[in-house]
């Protein structure tokens, strides 16, 4: 790619930023590997990653629902719907503690598999989150993902394999810690009066007992 004209390199960054799943998190490492200027590739990646977002929110779910039963495209469209539903479930779980806006921002902003602007926007449409709220949260998430990927790509470029392994180890540690926290939270929940649909933590039950004793 070193022989390509400069404007072609930036076009590659712009195009990759719009591709589902890959998005900005794949475009920025490419930009860094080509030695492009962060003052140009960073805003280009953000802008082109955001371009499909309003269309996804307004039309993607309808198109996917329409095409899920079609012979040729049905399998892929069903996969996209399932991905959106899974993203919606993740958002619901996170929103319980942080609120919908922050949950969506984090979902888009942390560059791990299964997240991103496409999935986040589709999940927001499944949960009927407002258009304006979704767009702003996704945009801030894309900006955050851009910062993380720019720093990570620069570290890998400077430190080589050692930097890559360090970043992978950090991501794994974050995922493991998050899973442990969620597991502990679930283990502290017990059914209320035998009703499994209603649960309370031990601390909440202790507070209720104190109030009853008073």
Topology:
Layout: H1 6-18, H2 23-33, H3 38-50, H4 53-67, H5 74-98, H6 100-109, H7 117-126, H8 131-159, H9 161-187, E1 189-192, E2 195-201, H10 202-213
Antiparallel strand pairs: 1-2
Helix pairs in contact: 1-2, 1-3, 2-3, 2-8, 3-8, 4-5, 4-7, 4-8, 5-6, 5-7, 6-7, 6-8, 7-8, 8-9
Structure description:
The protein has 214 residues and is mostly helical. Helix 5 packs across helix 6 and helix 6 packs parallel to helix 8. The protein is globular and about 45 Å long. The N and C termini lie far apart (75 Å). The protein contains 10 helices and 2 strands; from the N terminus they run H-H-H-H-H-H-H-H-H-E-E-H. Strand 1 and strand 2 form a beta hairpin.
Characteristic key phrases:
214 residues; mainly alpha; 2 domains; two-stranded antiparallel sheet; globular
Task: Provide a short characterization of the protein structure.
This protein is mostly helical and 214 residues long. It has two domains: 6-159, no CATH class; 161-214, no CATH class. 77% of the residues lie in helices and 5% in strands.
Tell me the Rg in angstroms: 21 Å
| Spatial arrangement of strands, main beta sheet | 1-2
- Mean pLDDT, to the nearest integer, reads 81
Beginning-to-end CA distance, first to last residue = 75 Å
Helicity, in percent?
over 70%
Largest sheet: 2 strands, antiparallel
Number of domains: 2
